[in-house]
Amino acid sequence: MKTSLRYTILWCNSMQLLGEAFVLSPPSFSSPLSSVRDIWRLAAHPSEFNSKYDKNESLPTEVDIVVIGSGVAGLSCASLLSHCSSSLNDVLVLESHDTVGGAAHGWSRRGFHFESGPSLYSGFSMERSSNPLKNIFQVVGNEPDWITYDRWGTVLPNGKKFAAKIGPEGLKGVMEEHGGPGANEEFSALMKRMEPLGNAAQALTSMALREDAGALATLGLRYPKELLQTLAQGQTLNEPFLNIMEEMSLQNKFVINWLDMLCFLLQGLPAAGTMNAVIAYMLADWYRPGVTLDFPRGGSGAIVAGLARAVEEKGGGRVVTNAHVQHILVKDNRACGVELKDGTVIH
Length: 347
Prior knowledge:
- The protein has helices at residues 36-43, 72-84, 132-140, 168-178, 183-203, 215-221, 224-232, 234-237, 241-248, 253-267, 276-286, 300-312, and strands at residues 9-11, 21-22, 65-68, 91-94, 105-109, 112-116, 120-122, 146-149, 151-155, 161-165, 293-296, 317-320, 325-331, 334-340, 345-346.
- The protein is α+β, with helices and mostly antiparallel strands.
- The protein folds into 2 domains: 1-158 and 292-347, FAD/NAD(P)-binding domain (3-Layer(bba) Sandwich); 167-291, no CATH class.
């Protein structure tokens, strides 16, 4: 007989994309494809996954795991649990809305495809990647096809438009053409200062992180060199980037504005209010030789659909929409079940 919700209830209805997935308007200049229009043409066939919850259809009354919310965080959690644990027979994802994906989904109306949430991805089209979501797909499968490009359209306050190419040479060109005297030298010095922080930020895969004693095995035994590299920069990684801006005496307005733009793409904050770890990871990833940006064929919905399929493909998992969790049931200070808006109780 199954025990009642043997493990835990996982609340995952917040937007939490794993790895680098940033909000940005679609690029508007040429790319490695014949045109950036090709990117959006190829991406305009959404992969949809909607498991409608019919109130007349009975849901299970007992399961091993309940995940609340089908955003990328919830589906990542559920797909790993469903894929990796032979002892878990039932993983149930409950989504309040009629579409899975949370803030990361797409939809079509009258022949037009719309994107919600992130639209700028990197670290997916390469096999050896520090992007945690890429690592999850490498475990559970069902990864989307990735379309690659290497620049985005940029508009300056004076209305001038140009194609901002990523990678070291692209950055040098932007600074020399638009930054004015000293911009390239100032940014180059900053990149050199951030290099050890970038290496530390990317040294450990987040798949090895855990909160119990098993961390000694997944970190200390398997990644001893990387662990020491990260610990050496640990305090600095958690400090605000403002400290490094002051240390480097950044003065060039274009450089500062460029950093503010990048940080806004990352998390909606100016550079001074962003953690060093975030900026270090981004600079190391976007300005390395041969870098490309990625976009999933089928749009953001293809990422969600792949994760949802991974939850269900082993037979024990299920993703249910239109299933609003009204209450989390607690007994002896532990979650023991959920009650849906329609009164359905699942333990």
